[in-house]
Amino acid sequence: MKGLGLISRLLPLGESLLAGLVGLAVGAIIMLIYGFNPIEAYFALFRGSFGSLYSLSEALANATPLILTALTFAIGLRGGLFNIGAEGQVYVGALAAIAMSLFKLPSGLHLVLTLIVAMLAGALWSLPAAILKLTRGVHEVISTIMFNWVAHFLAYYLIANILVDPRRAEKTISILPSARFPILVPKTSLSYGLLVSLFWVGLALFLLWYTTIGFEVRAMGFNPAACRYAGIKRWRTALFAFLVGGLTAGAAGGVHVMGRPPSYAIFSGLGGLLNLGFDGLGVAMIGRNHPIGIVLAAIFFGGLMAGGRLMQISPGVPLELIRVVEGVIIVALAVPELIRIFRLFREKITIWRRG
Amino acid sequence: MTFLDHFFGILFISLHAMVPITLAATGEVLGETAGLFNIGLEGIILLSALTGALGAEAGGWLIGLLVGIGTGLAIGLLFGLISTYWKGDQLIVGVGINLLALGFVAFELIILGAPGFHAVPREVQVPNINTPIRKDLSPLIFLTLALPFLTYYLLSRTQLGLKLKAVGENPAAADVAGIRVNLLRLLAAACGASLAGLGGAFISVDWIGSVTKEISAGRGFIALATVVFSGLNPLMVLLGGFIFGFFESLATWVSTFPGIKEVVPWQVVSMTPYIVTLLVVAGAIGRVRFPAALGKPYIRE
What we know:
The complex is a heterodimer of chains A (355) and B (301). Chain A has 2 domains: 53-317, ABC transporter involved in vitamin B12 uptake, BtuC (Orthogonal Bundle), CATH 1.10.3470; 320-355, no CATH class. Chain A is globular, with a radius of gyration of 21 Å. Chain A has 355 residues and is mainly α. Chain A is built from 14 helices and no strands. Chain B has a domain at 20-126 and 147-230. Chain B has helices spanning 3-33, 41-59, 61-83, 90-111, 140-157, 159-169, 171-176, 181-207, 219-230, 234-254, 266-284, and strands spanning 117-119, 210-212. In chain B, 54% of the residues are buried.
């Protein structure tokens, strides 16, 4: 009985691995169609992602904000909400963090305050979608996407006007050194911002599994009808999921600009901030919406991103292929019977071989 | 220019801006009536804008539009297959489609040699119709104006329409009545997605005439909002599509209008279609009822 329990707990991991293989296989097919050598490309990808301390650090640096945006989506989904607003909340968090560098403050205090303001800004940006959901019944898929676009243009405006670097018009002012996360591994992009992500992973675990409100959120995602009978208030769980999600997405934006050398700023066109929210969505799904799974998935995906740079240089496969692979993985993960279909297929082959 | 000229100017852009939204939303009405909720519309529009452009360059505008439709159809079949026979989660498939499209279009644009931008030559774009008022009207506008009426007829006056409503409302009862629930849902989703594909190809092969990573600009999601606004009535889709098209073109117009463009930043103007969408949807909800089985795979007991 105990063994069966372990297998059923590991099954999601197996499904994610299988979906990952499907994704990489489709990626290989696309490379073949476009005349690239997939073996060479995947070798470069692996070398660039986990082949050395430098590449491992880069993978972890990429994973840092993704863990946080994945938590945004996962907490929402645990509560039965399809909150895809992390993208916009990341922009707002990053902008708020940059705005904090308009002030001069003592070193440690500046860092802590900047991070808090970034998180609060993300939470604030998630609030209207929550209110629209609760008072008007607007589906969060629609409202959060609309707020993402509003945040997108708000960012364009602030980058070009209020937060603009007076010496370089194409970027904002940089985060002051007093509010920057120190580098964790010298000569890499990996900063102590990673600890913020890991702290949130622990906090999310604690909140969802060891508090009453967390239990209510998960119950609401599991069976809303039963929750109504049990007297669990929908507005409480929805507000909690949106606001905590906003905090983590805001933190992702903050950590990205506060801990990512060399510029510590946002460029016009949004550069590295772009798609952090949507990639986080993928990470959450690959990690099966569990905080620990998310850490593993984020490192996997951060590694693909880091290795993709090498793959782009050596066999010349554009980095964007990684996002195609991610999309295929998610489509494959959506099929609950993937493993069964796979098994059926294998059985058919064996039957066919036996004749 | 007189006031009337400006008014016709905005109206003219609105008619074009409403095409992709209305086409995608009309298709989505078909799918949602049958019980499938496809949030991958955005990705379908983006991807078929690219494939449509490539198709047009290879064989002319008609091939381009057909390739766009085919792209939508292919994705719609995949989406439908996973959400019906394979009992997958529709929202998750949709997210996967969107990410896949985002990655593939950026990938292909790099392969084409111009990262981020690809122009479609004028001579392979859809030829315009000359009217007394304006000379550059797209023929697809007329198709877009007609389709919601055809869809309305299909849904409310034919047996097929009744069957579609049945599988969306109560798939178990429809199953007992001998309707092939999964097949009908699959077909509805595939037809719906091909319309979104046509909308995407329209953007690149006809209206804007180029492909960028952001060419879809949230139109797939605005189409979803239009469906909410319409309450699954195709005629209301036409109205909703026009409202959203109007605000999009108003934004374009304001951002080029001397005297206004200096005062109001273009970024603020660009936000308006999205804010209007939120307001319209928030106002529309409450009077709208959706099929009971929307978004859930049908599992026979």
